[in-house]
Amino acid sequence: MKPATVTSETVQPAAHLRLVSDRAGDTSGIKLSGVSKTYRTRDGDVPSLRPLDFHINDGEFFVVVGPSGCGKSTLLKLISGLLPPTSGEILVEGEKVTTPHGNVGIVFQNALLLPWRNILNNVMLPIDMKRLPRQEYLDRARSLLKLVGLEGFEKKLPWQLSGGMQQRASICRALVHDPRIMLMDEPFGALDALTRERMNVELMRIQRETKKTVLLITHSIPEAVFLADRVLVMTERPGAVAAIYDVPLPRPRSLDVMADPVFTELVQRIRKHFFSQGALD
Amino acid sequence: MAEPKPQGAISKLLNAAWVRPFLFLVFIVVAWDLAIRLFKIPAYQIPSPGDVLAVLRTEWPELLRQSWPTTYATVCGFLLSALFGIPVAMLIAGSKTVESYVYPLLVFSQSVPKIAIAPLFVVWFGFGIIPKVISAFLLGFFPVVVSAVQGFKSVDPDMVDLARAMQGSRLQVFRAVNLPHALPAIFSGLKVSVTLAVVGAVVGEFVGSNSGIGYVMQRSIGTFDLPTMFAALVILALLGVILFWIVDRIEKLVIPWHVSQREDVIFAS
User: Fold this and answer.
1) What global pTM score does this model have?
2) Testing the interface with B: which of A74, A114, A123, A129 to mutate, by most B Cβ within 10 A?
3) Residue A110 backbone phi and psi in degrees, to 5
4) Is A116 an 8 Å CB contact of chain B?
5) What is the pLDDT of residue A276?
6) Does A128 touch chain B (CB under 8 A)?
7) Could you say which of A178, A195, A217 is where a domain stops?
8) Which of A158, A178, A198 is the last residue of a domain?
9) Which SUPFAM superfamilies does this chain map to (chain A) (predicted)?
10) Which of A41-45, B27-31, B72-76, B190-194 has the lowest mean pLDDT?
11) pLDDT for the residue A21
12) Under an 8 A CB cutoff, do A82 and B164 touch?
């Protein structure tokens, strides 16, 4: 790893920060072609997403950053099948998405654990919803809880856990039915800065061990660059792709990477998108 | 741990949940008695606590016998309001169309004084138990609906999305997420409802009945027998408290996870 000096030594500009074109013809992962969404309301049509075309590769850590209200959460609902797109089509593992397909695990900003279920049963919720054999998945649920460091908390009720622990349990819930894709909507937005950094490191480890395709939405540019293989920058509402950046930092990454000139330059570059557009929040 | 020693039986007794309201009750009764003596209030206006107690003692079998029809009508009316109120609330919370048609009318119907239309039930259903049950039901119904609608509506939409994204059917999601989430609100509605159902049953007995505590009150007012009337009031209050307590117990069994019940959970685990 490079020494953590941010000097003005001319970092080879933009050579490795090229815009990446999506590869075609690959059926694995998530493929969006011409996907747009317009909400019909009483006051007329409200466009939320302008046509989007991109491809998230299988096993990729894909992060979306964008200003508030740019339709990031709509994107997540479209991919999970909760909302139908107004135009275009979404392919998940080669299959067209029309209704909830269950091949996703979702993590929201709030842990959203059911207060009447203990931690283990909260993790088992997808199994109950999908009517899968409970017994077969109990061990998986327990080992996932162990993976995130919640061993011994299986019988606790959600309110007995801290915010970070609750969010870890909700990550287990997103993984218990072994989906190919994990969708995360500002998963650590409600946590304090220290816990947030720890959770980021942990999430990278979990992704490395489970090899899931991750689509994560965030407001934090450093968080995006730290976690991602590629970062998608969205424009203001109605959202469209402003740019997609490769993150050429080697893995496994530690928090030290944040002092790497490549890291800081990329953060700067992405930030410029928002300054040219106006405010980030 | 150098904790101060427990101060003995008296403070322990003071900390029991039922002792404090009981002490306060004793205080009120004493104040009542003193007021009658001090201001020389004649017995035909307000009876003394002693007279009421005497009636309660001598007339106990009769009062108990008369309280059964009232209890029966209250419980039936209450169960009906839960049985109809919760599904109606589900429909209102689940469909904007149903809500726009039904909810305003429901609120409107609440401003119709039940006591004014109670004689109508006597005309329709005679002097039996049915008018009382209907009257208890009408009073108990509204709070159940209002609370349950609020409970069903307060579910986090993200939570429902999460369950739906796992391919849960509508019924599954409802049973796993919406219904348990609404239970605390439903129970607070049921608690209001059960005490109002007592009032409803008595209203039913006022307008046309030859049994029940309401009938006893009506009769004793007619003969200026105030001690008996107050004794009937005491019985009614007891009935309300007991029914409320039963619903409260059921709530503790059904939703032990809720914030309001948490202390019990800590001790139990």
Assistant:
1) 0.79
2) A129
3) -90, 145
4) yes
5) 65
6) yes
7) A178
8) A178
9) P-loop containing nucleoside triphosphate hydrolases (SSF52540)
10) A41-45
11) 47
12) yes
Same domain, A41 and A140: no
What's the gap in Å between the CA of B173 and the closest CA on chain A?
Answer: 7
Best mutation site among B154, B167, B263 for testing chain A: the one with the most A CBs within 10 Å? B167
Instruction: Mark yes or no for CB contact B255/A116 under 8 Å.
Output: yes
Residue A15 maps to a domain: no
Claim to verify: residue A273 and residue A208 sit in the same structural domain: yes
pLDDT tens, residue by residue, A11-24: 344 444 444 444 54
Q: How many domains does chain A have?
A: 2
Which residue among A100, A110, A128 sits closest to B176, beta carbon to beta carbon?
A128
Segment B40-59 shows an average pLDDT of: 88
Instruction: Read off the pLDDT of residues A68-88 as tens digits, 9 standing for 90 and up.
Output: 777 888 888 899 999 899 998
Write out the DSSP string of B46-104.
S--HHHHHHHHHHTHHHHHHHHHHHHHHHHHHHHHHHHHHHHHHHHHHH-HHHHHHHHH
Nearest to B167 among A102, A106, A108 (CB): A102
Q: B183 to chain A: nearest residue by CA?
A: A116
Asked if A95 and A216 sit in the same domain, the reply is yes
Q: Three-state SS for A10?
A: coil
Please check whether residues A121 and A199 belong to one and the same domain. Answer: no
Pairing mode, strands A30-41 and A87-92:
antiparallel
User: Regarding beta strands A87-92 and A95-96, do their DSSP bridges make them parallel or antiparallel, or are they unpaired?
Assistant: antiparallel
Please check whether residue A90 is in contact with residue A31, taking contact to mean a CB–CB distance below 8 angstroms: yes
ipTM of the complex: 0.78
The alpha carbons of chain A give a radius of gyration, in whole angstroms, of 19
**Residue A26's pLDDT band (cuts 50, 70, 90):** low
The domain that holds A209 is classified in CATH as: 3.40.50.300
Q: Do residue A129 and residue B258 have CB atoms under 8 angstroms apart?
A: no
Residue with tokens 């709509």, as numbered in its chain: A74
Q: Under an 8 A CB cutoff, do A129 and B173 touch?
A: yes
Report if residue A231 sits inside a domain: yes
Residue A17 domain-assigned (yes or no): no
Has residue A67 been placed in a domain?
yes
